[in-house]
Every structure is written in structure tokens, then in C-alpha cells.
Amino acid sequence: MTQITHDIFKFTLDLDNKTAELSGLIDKNQEIDSIIVNETIFYECDEYTVKKIGNSAFAYCRTLRSVFLPNTIECIGEHAFIDCTRLSSIILPKGLKSIEHGAFIRCGSLTALQLPESITNLGAHLFQECYALHSVNIPENITEICKATFHCCQSLRSVNIPSTVKYIGEKAFDGCALLTSITIPDSVKNIGKRAFKNCSSLANVTIPNSVMSIEYGVFRGCSSLKSITIPNTVTRIERSAFRECSSLTSFIIPNSVTRIGGLAFASCSSLKSVTIPNNVTRIGDRTFSGCSSLAAVVIPNSVTSMGDGVFRECSSLISVTIPNSVTSIGKNTFRECLSLVSIIIPENAMSIGVGAFSCCSSLISINIPNSLTSIDDGAFYACTSLKEITYQGTKEQWNMINFGKGWISFSHKKSIYCADGEIE
Known about the structure:
1% helix, 5-stranded parallel beta sheet, single chain, mainly beta
């Protein structure tokens, strides 16, 4: 490779193939308004075709407003135009094949871009923080939308994902606050973590049958999301998948799902109903915490494990059915469920965790099975309306239970009834 200068540019020449890479400006501090790159340059009487814009070639050229690239360019290198904050116009060549990692990061004045159909590769973080970008096409040859490609493109309103795309990468559209709708084609097999996080204008989404899991935080903070269709191919809804989707009113979890991750629906403040299928075996920590409109829940018999705080701060929850397959009520499971009036602890339950029903101020009665061996600290603390506890075992069995510190508030009179009489 040979390094030369020509006009205001530096080039790297491939003497064997007679090709050139534009590697940057001779004077990195030169203030330049526009750039026109020629198709060829001459060196020692030989002609070299300009094929690539090199890595960081025009990085931090904050006065650059327009760029014209010739049709000979096949590749734009990593960070080629990063932080070109005034760049508003660039014409991409028809033969362009690849735009590499972070080429246009923080090009905050770029409003629209026409990507030629010849492109087969779009790198990660490509248009990250291009705050003014409102329109961009994705060519038919693209198979992957890489990590953070459109991260924080706050003006992006719509994107057409072609049927060739198989993967949508992590944080691909994270923070696209004006994105109102998106069609995910059947070709997509995987949607990465936080792919649509904080797309606060996104109103409806249909997940194709090709997807098998809803990954961590995919739709977190999609506060306008009212409708989402999940296919029967999905087996897992991962942690925080729909957290803070505050416009979501109902949700049908398909029968194929076996696991619901922690915080999956946390702070979905408009969620009134949710259907949990019979194949779910575990509900993770704080899955429905802060779902302040949720009034009733039926937990199927398939569930054997519930994490801590599953229904914490579900202030409208009146009715909940816990199956006998559940053997423990975890820490803070129903804490601050202010509307919960009564609860039946499942027959096989062995423990009630710390603060499990604390601050359930409307709770009047509890039914406890004789299988129970421990009630932990503050389990029924500040249950100010609690008047009656019914225990299925004898007084002797009751006295054998391991009671934690302050398991209940004794400031108000409560009756504890066992199978052989009342506890005095």
C-alpha cells in the first residue's frame, strides 16, 4: 500500500489492483463546506479507481454540509462521517455495497437518506443519534438490522423492513420517539434486546410467527402501545419486555409461552386484564408490579414458582386465584395491593415471605392451610382492616409455625380460628 496526497485529500493506493481509498483530509483542521470526490486519481502516470471512503476519513468535520460520492465507491468505512453535525446532504453511489460501523453517528442535520439497492451490509450504530433523520429506506438485500442502527433517531416516523431481514439487532430502534408503526416481516427470526425500547409513539405491533421469544426490554417504555399480537410460536416473554407500556389495556399471552420474566409487565398502569396460559411454569420477580388498573388475575395450575413482588402495588387488584401447585408466596408478592379484600393461601404452601401482604389495607380475611411452616417478617404488616385469619390446622400446629418479626400488626383486634377452636 502506498500513501499519497491529491488535491485536499489523502489516499491509500493498491498498486496491484489500481484502486484507491480516500483516507482523509490533508489538513484535519481545515474548515470545509462541501466535498466532491472524483472517480479516479492519477499517480505516476497510472489511473486509480476510488473504491472506498476510509475509516474516520471525515470524522469530526463539523463545518461539512454536503458530500458527493462517485459511483465507483463500494464501501464507506467505520466512523467515516461521525460527528459531522452540519452534514445535511449526501448522495450515495449506485454501486455502494457496504456502510460500516458508526459511519454517520451524530450527523444531527441529516434529514433523509436514499440507500441504493446495491447495499448488502449496514453496520451497527450506523445512524445513532441522527436526531433529524425522518426518512430512510432499507434495501431489499439487507438480512440484518444491526445493533443500535437507528438508536435515538428521534425524528424517524416510519421504516419499511424488507422481507429479506432475518434479525433485528439489540437497541436497533431504541429511542425512536416519533415512530408510530412498524411492520415486522415473517422473515424475522429474532428481535434483539431493547430493539424498540422507548418508541413512545408506537401504537400497535404484530410479531410474526417466525419469532420464538420476546427478549429483554424489547418494548419497554412504548407508552402509546395499545395493541400487540403475539403468535403461538413464542415460548418466552423475557424480563421487562413490556415494562412501562402505560397504554396497554389487555394482553393475551399465547398458550405456547412457558416462562414470563421478571418485570415483564411492570408499570403497565392501564392493564386491566391479562390471560396467563396453562403452560406457564414460572412468573418472574415483579412481573406485574405497578399494574395499578389490574383488577383480577387467575394463575393457572401449571405455575409452580412465583418470584418476589409479582403483584406489588397492584392497587386495584380485588381478586387473585393462586393454584395449589404454588408452594411459597414470595417476598412482597402482594405488597400495597390496596383493594385486595380476601386471600386463600394454596393448600400446599409452606411459606409466606417477608412483607408478602404488607400494607394491604382492605384485606379483611385470610385462609391459611395446615401445610404452612413459616410466616416471615412483616408478612401481614399494616393490614389495618384484617379481622379474621382461618387456619386449617389445629392450635398445636399453629403454634409450631415459625413466625417472623412483626409478621402481623396487633394494634387492631384480630380473630385467629383453628380447626379445634379460636386462638386466645
